[in-house]
Design a protein that fits this description.
This protein folds into 2 domains: 168 residues, no CATH class; 223 residues, no CATH class. The protein contains 17 helices and 2 strands. A two-stranded antiparallel ribbon has the order 1-2. The longest helix has 28 residues. It comes from Haloterrigena salina JCM 13891. It is a multi-pass membrane protein.
């Protein structure tokens, strides 16, 4: 009933300040707020999912308010300034607050409890709100621009997943605020230094927040080492690389596709670790296996990035499959300087992991280095054989990091069985 009233009300508004505030770009030609109508339909669909599955009503309410009020805040920010980063910040801040308030009200009504009694659930609600706001802003910026119905459904499904991992959340509300502040600071620094676009910044912040909350600060230190060193390496002799036609686009600023291509497997390992710690996975796999898979994937990403960014400024590369000289920038082309830089990148990740995790002893560190080198080699082999014909660059990055993760986990498992 509420959804029907809201949809009819949206159709009744055809002009005026309210129309200007709520209209999507496509609504101006039609003269109707069809965007709001589809948003209401998406909310109704999400509500049906909530009442027929294990998704909580609090996640549903929080998601609806997150998208609705976040969108409103962004529209108001557009009237104040033309800076895209301010529009993004307005959306994320207001969306997070709206999501937390919505979840609090829904939990209070469902449990018949006062707001004061909800404090134990505050960390989870804050984490859900912040991660949902970051994902929504990212989707609106790049993947599904002005398609809030798709954004709402996607964010709702993410919230459902995170809520299922609640037993693995060990941080307090204050600690999550600190984690959010740290990841935002690193993300904005990457944007300010032009090593990441707004979409890349949002992706990095979201990945960092999920990594800290579901893994820990040690995991985040490993991940941020890749973002920091990899981002700076793209600036290394940039003008020379641009002249040779091998420089990253956008002055070296990495977008969401690049970030996700290199870090999606690492994120999967973090989620696997949290699910394993909460005994949600069949067979109860050892959580440390996911730690090594995470380190192996990051070592691969670091090795591949340093190999490409540093090796591309040296002598003519050779195709890894035939060792024939090829033009700079050719997929699958390698240089001995790049290979050394790649090995150094894997050693950096292994050293950080060795210093931060008790589970990573000397043998474990050596395995991480080996996994990084294997993943870097797989990237080059895929580049020489399939990239550009069957696979895109981000798919190659994903498969390479996946190979590094699997090699690392399997070698650790083999040593555990033999030893």
């Amino acid at each position: 009933m509420i959804a029907a009233v809201a949809a009819l009300g949206a159709l009744a508004v055809t002009d005026g300040p309210l129309f200007e505030l709520l209209a999507y770009p496509s609504d101006y030609e039609a003269g109707r707020l069809y965007g709001i109508v589809t948003l209401v339909l998406a909310g109704t669909t999400l509500g049906l999912i909530a009442v027929t599955t294990s998704m909580s009503i609090a996640v549903f309410v929080g998601t609806v308010l997150l998208v609705g009020y976040g969108n409103l805040a962004e529209q108001l920010a557009h009237r104040w300034t033309d800076r895209d980063v301010v529009h993004t910040a307005a959306f994320c801040v207001v969306a997070t607050v709206a999501a937390v308030v919505g979840q609090s009200v829904a939990r209070s009504i469902a449990d018949g409890a006062a707001f004061e009694s909800l404090s134990p659930a505050l960390p989870t609600m804050l984490f859900l709100g912040a991660s949902g706001a970051l994902l929504a802003s990212l989707l609106r910026d790049i993947l599904f621009a002005n398609d809030d119905p798709v954004v709402m459904l996607t964010v709702g499904l993410l919230g459902w997943l995170i809520a299922e991992l609640e037993p693995a959340l060990a941080l307090s509300g204050g600690e999550i605020v600190v984690a959010l502040a740290i990841t935002v600071a690193f993300g904005y620094l990457s944007y300010a230094l032009e090593t990441a676009s707004i979409a890349g910044m949002l992706t990095g912040i979201l990945l960092g927040l999920l990594t800290i909350v579901l893994g820990g600060y040690g995991w985040f230190a490993v991940l941020i080492s890749f973002f920091a060193i990899g981002g700076l390496s793209s600036k290394y002799r940039y003008e020379e690389k641009a002249e040779r036609g091998v420089a990253e686009d956008n002055n070296g600023a990495r977008g969401s596709g690049n970030v996700l291509g290199n870090a999606a497997v690492a994120l999967g390992a973090v989620l696997g670790y949290a699910a394993s710690s909460a005994t949600l996975l069949p067979g109860n796999p050892e959580p440390s296996l996911f730690l090594f898979a995470f380190a192996g994937s990051v070592a691969t990403a670091m090795s591949d990035t340093l190999s490409s960014e540093i090796g591309s400024v040296f002598e003519t590369p050779r195709l890894i499959t035939t060792l024939e000289p090829v033009e700079p920038g050719t997929d699958g082309g390698v240089t001995w300087q790049g290979e050394i830089a790649g090995i150094a990148g894997a050693i950096i990740v292994a050293t950080i992991s060795y210093g931060l995790f008790d589970a990573v002893a000397t043998v474990g560190a050596a395995i991480i280095v080996a996994a990084g080198v294997v993943g870097m080699t797989v990237d080059s082999l895929l580049g020489a054989t399939l990239e550009g014909r069957v696979l895109g660059n981000q798919s190659v990055n994903f498969l390479a990091t996946l190979s590094g993760a699997l090699v690392c986990a399997l070698l650790v498992l083999s040593f555990a069985v033999l030893g």
